[in-house]
């Protein structure tokens, strides 16, 4: 039976019930995959179609223009998949959250809009790992971000060209391709269900406050994933905004990092002033990465994002020509520009707790501490992460982690660096796993069990001495 053969009333009868706003309905219609059609990393769905055969597919439900307004019709959305913990966004925070929840015993699903993991740390070519160490009371350098983040750095060290400068008190640099590979390895070995090329559109709610999944936009059309707990690690709070959580929306620098090659073939005549924008060394010999600050702008505005891509690419091209026009630097070339624009901060959750820089610098302590973060360059002591910074004020069964957690603007500068995103992702993943295991909401989760699970996964939770 095809939807287009049915009247609207027949269709509603066929699917069994009315479609209330925000509620997905299990569809029996032809053309969609069954409920458990996840692409596990080592499993590729085969269709029965012969070469060139037409696969009868999706019923069309185009938008309509009515009196000058474009209306999206009410329609049932297929339930693609069900899971315990749904993590939306496969950046540093999302990967740590997914791995932590899976190691904590939950069935985990990770959704990512692009075809690879790592977020800004791979697709954004942000390669320097800042903020995982600090000064303890004795004035010694001490690494505070441990757990899955530390495991990632240890594993990068074992892979060729994975990471350089890994010593306490220094900020190491990673290679984006090696990190992409490592994340595939770690996600696969944790048996996490993966949906790539899937852009989360909307939260799915059971009622006004309770999240129970997300609708993703795919080439198969919109699909629903139902979950007991959802973690928004999109960096931009796409899910918590859709669920109705309150948040701050901020403008911040948007740049476009890139890499240069052949810096090991530079032969400047004596006395040549080195050109600008040469960047810093990476694990690949002769390759440097060049960061870009960029203007303060709205990272959610599609017109702004489009214009910045155009401007930044012209700017980088100009910079590289300037380098190549410098005597001795003729062989330097533009290896790659980041496939993802460098959007640093957009939506920041209004959490049950909000972190401040003053609190971080003065060692403020929290009863609901679920992590310890470091300083940019070890210029102050470690700071505690309260669970409340991941938890929306009024929405249930939804956590956030990474650059969108609750912090005042100055503190977000510190919360957003990669190791601190690993750390908050780790905490959110363990909390979601414990909530699922005990059948509680994320708000009522047993924090002693969360901390025990985090310690069991080698996270560092103690007040820095
Ligand atoms: C230019 C620049 C320079 C920086 N320099 C440094 C530095 O030197 N050192 C440092 O440690 N940090 C640095 N940072 C900060 C750091 O890179 C990021 O803050 C960090 O990567 C954030 O991690 P995250 O997991 O919270 O978010 P992200 O890395 O942004 O990951 C979010 C993921 O979610 C996916 N996603 C987004 N929306 C959706 C959706 N709707 N559906 C599905 N998937 C979605 C994205 O594709 C991405 O994979 C820099 C950032 C920028 C932009």
Rg computed from alpha carbons, rounded to a whole number of angstroms: 24 Å
N→C terminal distance: 68 Å
Rounded average pLDDT: 90
Describe the global form.
globular
Which quaternary structure do these chains form?
Answer: single chain
**Which sheet architecture does the biggest sheet show?**
7 strands, mixed
What class would the helix/strand composition place it in? alpha+beta
Number of helices: 10
Question: What percent of the residues sit in helical stretches (DSSP H or I)?
Answer: 25-40%
Low-confidence stretches: 1-42
**Amount of beta strand:** 15-25%
> Bound small molecules, which ones?
flavin-adenine dinucleotide
Total strands: the figure is 24
What does this structure look like?
The structure is a single chain. The chain is α+β, with helices and mostly antiparallel strands and 465 residues long. Helix content is 25%, strand content 22%. It has helices at 8-15, 92-103, 147-158, 176-189, 238-243, 302-324, 357-361, 409-415, 418-438, 447-456; strands spanning 64-66, 69-71, 79-88, 108-111, 133-135, 141-143, 163-164, 173-174, 193-195, 199-205, 211-218, 221-232, 247-249, 252-255, 258-261, 280-281, 288-290, 296-297, 333-337, 342-343, 347-349, 369-373, 383-386, 398-400. Strands 3, 4, 9, 10, 11, 12 and 24 form a 7-stranded mixed β-sheet that branches. A 4-stranded antiparallel β-sheet has the order 16-17-15-19, with helices on one face. A hairpin with a 5-residue loop joins strand 10 (199-205) and strand 11 (211-218). Helix 2 (92-103) runs parallel beside helix 9 (418-438) and helix 9 (418-438) crosses helix 10. The longest helix is centred in the C-terminal third of the chain and has 23 residues, at 302-324. Mean pLDDT is 90; it is low at 1-42. The structure holds flavin-adenine dinucleotide. The site of flavin-adenine dinucleotide (FAD) has 39 residues, from helix 2, strand 10, strand 20 and helix 9.
